[in-house]
Design goal:
heterodimer, A: 402 residues, alpha/beta, TIM Barrel, Immunoglobulin-like, 6-stranded antiparallel sheet, 4-stranded parallel sheet, 9 helices, 22% strand, B: 396 residues, 2 domains, 11 helices, 17 strands, 31% helix
Chain lengths: 402, 396
């Protein structure tokens, strides 16, 4: 049975919200139709009654237990195999043969102690819903760390390092993909505070490395709200940056936390259940990802480099295999990709959240940029040798290299 | 369809002749595309475009490529009777359509052109009531002094005053592209010219009881200038709104060799198109509301400019503060309620605006939900170039 992750025409863009709240009772004025209009390709975590609407709107969906919408990553350890089987079978019966079902929600941000139960739950999903996704989202690298007795109750990861957390997760849970959330673009005040800004890129590269090593895709959850009252708000620039850096690293999905306010200001749908300006910014960013996604799905990520060592210290610097150097006043992220015929591509992202970047790339000898992908019109457009390339703050572009 | 003097309508238009100045071009991204980009006026159109205007429900400005001879027709060489014949001809040739909002008359006249323009405006007033005689003026950085200059007056103020007194226009329209020339405000002297132009035009227009329309740019206006961004598009729109402008025009919609325009040289929408559509949506939402009010003040919290601009008086100055520079436009509606448009003038950084009004403040939803109550303790956060509208008092 082919995995749903093999559907290369669908690039998952996910609102990280339970459609009916974690108690399953909330009804939204801006429901699934609004989510589709905002350019998402997956609905968030839906219940059986939503599936017909998802089908009609062409949305995939992650199913959230109708009977127990407060599914917790920790719950699986307490269940024996029979109970886990019964639960997953019930989910599969509830969702029937709906083509909208992309996967099943198993939990969010597990500690390492939760891995054994999650492993059994993942196996159950694979047994009873072959090809569908067992959805688990991991902690970011700024979660608390530690295994010593003193830290036992305080440690979120329950490992000694984030790398250990990721490695153990992959080895013990055997997931189909790695998903994690990171809101450091907001916490860093639009990347002005260096330490949290570093976490954003470090986390992205760490997950990428582990995922590639184990041959599984990775999905990043980023933020579309003012994550804390003191942090920055969503802007066209920081929404673009979060989306394009995920793509440039080779990420196979972008999730937005959150679509609904749920106590967060400046979310796409506000506390009064109205669209906010963020909704319109996000719909344009999602539109671009939706155009690019199926192209990115068909490319293999080869490396990630940063010009001038990147906007934060310690990132892998150019030269890369395809792009040797960049003449640009602003810091750039360069993701190198290859297609199945061996064709080369580079996704270049302006990582400045303040200024437009005029870019001039120096490529390996004999190489030149032949085309760029136009997320406005769709498709690649041939580029002239002297054609100027500009990227607005946070924006990215996919280039085809001859 | 709307008429020039219709209340509750805010003109947002692409500053382009739909068929080029010569009248023969064809655009794949035509009036339907312009309507989809949330413009409310279709730009400069010809008789053959009227069916498309009707189909999209957009009004437009009538343009005669033969008479107008690439945008600057020789009105001075015509007598009043001859000009009357031109206008009658336009009316007979489709200009009387309800889709026609007005007539393109001239772009960037020097003062020596004023007598002919006065006759043209007079003819439109008499022969095409409720329609606009559209003339667009130079910005304040045009050359001045002597007949060889662009303005053909000694100062910009003299140019504006003479235009009003001699031409007797229905609106004051001008263009200013200093946000682009200044590289998104990094050249302070150039950016100052953008602000002072707004202040100058507003003062003259208000003194003479005229509406004022600003033309700004969604293109990279010349090779070394800033490219259009979500921030600088929002900035141009919101500063126009805060100043009390009754219209915003975008020069230009099509490429015309400038690159990064909403429609590229291959007649395809580019990313500018999508960001402009969102800014136009906000203009179309907020514009009519502000147009129905009286602009009572235009202030700047920044002192980092090369010429003086009005600073907010107390108590407004203490009530609205931020680390970033702000523009504050104050308004009074027909019921006496006071509003304040707050614009983040920083094109790089989000502003957290602290509000300390003595009474509860409402904020206008930018999605059509009307006035929303604000939590007084919450700062008003504005992305670069973005604006917001506050209702600060029921009466003032």
């Amino acid at each position: 049975m082919a995995s749903i992750l093999d559907n290369l025409d669908l690039f998952p863009i996910l609102p990280w919200d339970p459609q009916h709240g974690w108690d399953g009772t909330t009804e939204r004025r801006h429901g699934l139709g609004s989510i589709a209009a905002c350019g998402f390709t997956l609905a968030g975590f839906v219940q059986a009654r939503d599936l017909a609407t998802c089908e009609r709107l062409g949305l995939g969906a992650i199913y959230l237990d109708d009977d127990n919408p407060r599914v917790r990553a920790a719950q699986w350890n307490a269940m024996d195999d029979a109970a886990i089987d019964a639960t997953v079978r019930r989910w599969v019966e509830s969702t029937g043969d709906s083509p909208a079902v992309y996967g099943y929600y198993l939990g969010d941000e597990p500690g390492a102690h939760d891995f054994p139960g999650l492993a059994r739950a993942v196996q159950a999903v694979q047994r009873h819903a072959p090809g569908k996704l067992a959805y688990i989202n991991l902690f970011p690298d700024y979660a608390t760390i530690g295994t010593r007795q003193l830290a036992k109750d305080l440690s979120q990861l329950q490992t000694d390092s984030y790398s250990e957390y990721l490695e153990r997760y992959v080895r013990e849970v055997r997931p189909q993909f790695i998903s994690w959330d990171n809101y450091m673009v907001q916490y860093s005040q639009d990347m002005r505070d260096l330490e949290p800004a570093t976490s954003y890129y470090r986390n992205l590269l760490d997950v990428r490395q582990v995922a590639l090593q184990h041959g599984i895709p990775f999905w990043q959850i980023v933020s579309s709200n003012q994550i804390r009252p003191t942090t920055t708000i969503p802007s066209p620039a920081n929404l673009l940056l979060q989306a394009y850096t995920t793509l440039a690293a080779g990420g196979r999905s972008v999730g937005w936390y959150t679509y609904y306010a749920r106590g967060y200001s400046y979310a796409p749908i506000d506390e009064d259940d109205q669209r906010s300006a963020t909704w319109y910014y996000l719909s344009e960013v999602n539109r671009q990802i939706k155009e690019l996604g199926p192209v990115m799905n068909r490319l293999t990520s080869r490396e990630v480099r940063f010009s001038h060592g990147g906007s934060v210290p310690g990132l892998p610097a150019l030269p890369g295999e395809v792009v040797l150097d960049a003449e640009c006043a602003e810091p750039l992220m360069v993701g190198a990709f290859a297609d199945s015929q061996g064709g080369d591509y580079a996704m270049v992202v302006n990582t400045s959240l303040e200024r437009s970047a005029r870019i001039r790339l120096r490529l390996a000898p004999g190489r030149s940029v032949s085309a760029r992908f136009c997320p406005a019109a769709g498709g690649f457009r041939a580029m002239e040798a002297d054609e100027e390339r500009w990227l607005t703050a946070g924006e990215g572009v996919l280039l085809r290299v001859r | 369809m709307v008429t020039f003097d219709q209340d509750g309508f805010f003109a947002v238009f692409p500053w382009n002749p739909q068929r080029g100045w010569g009248g023969t071009e064809q655009h794949e991204q035509g009036l339907e595309s312009i309507a989809a980009c949330n413009f409310t006026i279709g730009g400069f159109i010809q008789t053959e475009d009227l069916p498309a205007c009707e189909a999209t429900g957009m009004s437009a400005l009538y343009y005669d490529p033969v008479f107008c001879h690439r945008a600057q027709p020789a009105w001075n060489s015509l007598s009043q009777a001859e000009i009357d014949e031109v206008i009658r001809g336009w009316m007979a040739n489709g200009g009387d359509s309800p889709s026609v909002y007005g007539f393109y008359i001239y772009d960037e006249p020097g003062a020596t052109a004023f007598p002919g323009l006065a006759r043209a405006v007079d003819a439109v007033r008499r022969l095409a009531p409720n329609k606009l005689a559209y003339i667009n003026l130079f910005p304040n950085y045009a050359t001045m002094g002597g007949e060889d200059s662009q303005l053909q007056t000694e100062t910009y103020e003299e140019h504006l005053e003479r235009f009003v007194q001699e031409v007797r226009p229905q609106v004051l329209s001008w263009d200013n592209y200093m946000p682009q020339y200044s590289d998104d405000g990094r050249d302070v002297a150039q950016m100052t010219l953008y602000y002072t132009n707004l202040v100058q035009m507003r003062a003259v227009a208000q003194r003479h009881g005229l509406p004022y329309w600003q033309t700004v740019s969604p293109s990279r206006i010349f090779p070394r200038s800033a490219v259009p961004t979500p921030a600088n598009l929002a900035f141009q729109a919101w500063t126009s709104l805060a100043a009390g402008c009754s219209s915003v025009a975008w020069y230009c919609y099509y490429d015309h060799g400038m690159r990064f325009s909403p429609v590229d040289d291959q007649e395809r929408r580019n990313l500018t198109w999508y960001w402009l559509a969102e800014v136009n949506r906000q203009l179309a939402l907020v514009g009519p509301l502000l147009k129905a009010m009286r602009s009572t003040g235009l202030y700047f919290t920044t002192t980092n400019l090369t010429e003086p601009v009005p600073a907010p008086p107390e108590p407004l100055a203490s009530a609205v503060s931020a680390e970033q520079p702000l523009m504050l436009g104050t308004f009074k509606d027909a019921d006496g309620a006071c509003c304040c448009v707050v614009v983040n003038l920083d094109l790089d950084r989000t502003a957290k605006v602290t509000l300390a009004f003595p009474r509860p403040v409402q904020e206008l939803s930018l999605t059509g939900a009307g006035w929303m109550e604000r939590d007084e303790k919450e700062p008003l956060c504005l992305a670069p170039g973005q604006g917001g509208v506050l209702r600060v008092a029921e009466s003032c």
